[in-house]
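Review form for a predicted model. The reviewer records the input and the model, then writes brief findings.
Reviewer: anonymous (R2)
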Amino acid sequence: MYLIGLTGGIASGKSTVARRLYEHGAVHIDADQLARRVVEPGTPALAAIVEEFGTDVLRRDGSLDRAKLGERVFGDAEQLAKLNAIVHPAVRELSGRLIAKAEQEDPDAVVVYDVPLLVEASVDHPFDLIVVTNAPRRAQVERLVENRGLDRGQAEARVDAQVDNTARLAIADVVIDTDGSLAHTMSQTDELWHRIVEERRARA
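Model under review:
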């Protein structure tokens, strides 16, 4: 198995790169989806969140009101740290199981673990390669405004709340520049895939 850690700031083109690698045949594991799964009703993580933040973060059906919880922790480092201490270990455990399952099903699989908080959550899976998508702040803000309907102030706050991109770039084995056209992003991703295929062929 070949394990890729894919990370990047919000609206930096990470999903586009993940989708392209999937089209090439990679197994895609999305940390954002796992973060939703680990707080579904009946999970230990949801019980811990309710114990920490109270029942008012639940909807009537017993599911987590992510928007309400987000309002509670956004901009409050202490509250966010408490939430992360519950969610991050649960996601790490589930992702570890899914990566192991992918390897069991296909020992030659290329697995892309798409994880926005790779730096912040200290994700320590044994990656063969760490890929970082990189776009300037202005591009991230524009994409959030145009594609996700945020107003400019909200978009800037979302971008600025994340870890500085310097920390991501410091751990990158490969940086994909997503500031240009979609075709340029795709071509860099295709080159990466071919590089991985050649590396694995050389190892065999």
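Findings: The chain has a mean pLDDT of 92.
Further findings: The longest strand covers residues 2-8.
Recommendation: see findings above.
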